Amino acid sequence: MLIEVEHWSGDGNRFIIVDNRKNEINNQWNMLLNKLCRRNNLSDAEGLLVLLEINKKNSICIYDFYNPDGSIGVMCGNGAKCAVRHAVLTENLSYNKIELILNDCSYKSKLLDNNRVALEFPLYKELRFIDDWTYVYVGSHHVIIDACYLVKSIDDFYQFDLIKFANEYLNLYRNKIGINNINLSLAYFINDQSNIYLRTYENGVFHETQACATGAISTAIAFWKKKYY
Ligand SMILES: N[C@@H](CCC[C@H](N)C(=O)O)C(=O)O
């Protein structure tokens, strides 16, 4: 069977989108994920978005999101932005008010200028300060580590072996929080610029990705709550 797929990128976070509104693909997602989301070359994806339905009259689009390991990534901010833009292009939805239903959760969104997508998030569902790191839940689970404990400069920050660190410490964070599917973000805050530089090791991808929207939101919340700015 020939399956048409589209490659999308949300800020460098890469996804495959499949239109399954005719329900032609049944329970073959694991096969597709294996073929399309391996990390062998640059075109490999970090998640799969499956279009289930677009209701043009009410500007509603419904997608499922899968991580490359086959697990359901409940919320993926960059994937959600791609889904909204994909729905607009597919069915010419009204730009001002689009409801996205992603993995059964509803988000309000709209299209801004230059094809940017705005997505409304609840503030956060859970926040915990544990030792010198922070756990934030915004639909996906994030551990935020302040890089000032690990590196001394922005160059060191980008040289830091995030994958080795994740392999060594992920289980510790999982055990402390009691949740398995955790994303790990290393955040470097530059005070006089009010900038936070971020690197994220994603659950379900088990690798560093180019960008992670819920990681960015969680980090902003963690630093704001710690009164960094
Ligand atoms: N890339 C994401 C987060 C995706 C979800 C993650 N893989 C998980 O399972 O928690 C984003 O842009 O938010």
Automatic annotation (TrEMBL):
One of the GO biological process terms: lysine biosynthetic process via diaminopimelate
A GO CC term attached to the entry: cytosol
Alphabetized GO MF terms: diaminopimelate epimerase activity
A Pfam family assignment: DAP_epimerase
Signal peptide: none
Keyword set, alphabetical order: Isomerase
Family of this protein: Belongs to the diaminopimelate epimerase family.
Cited PANTHER family: DIAMINOPIMELATE EPIMERASE, DIAMINOPIMELATE EPIMERASE, CHLOROPLASTIC
Protein name: Diaminopimelate epimerase
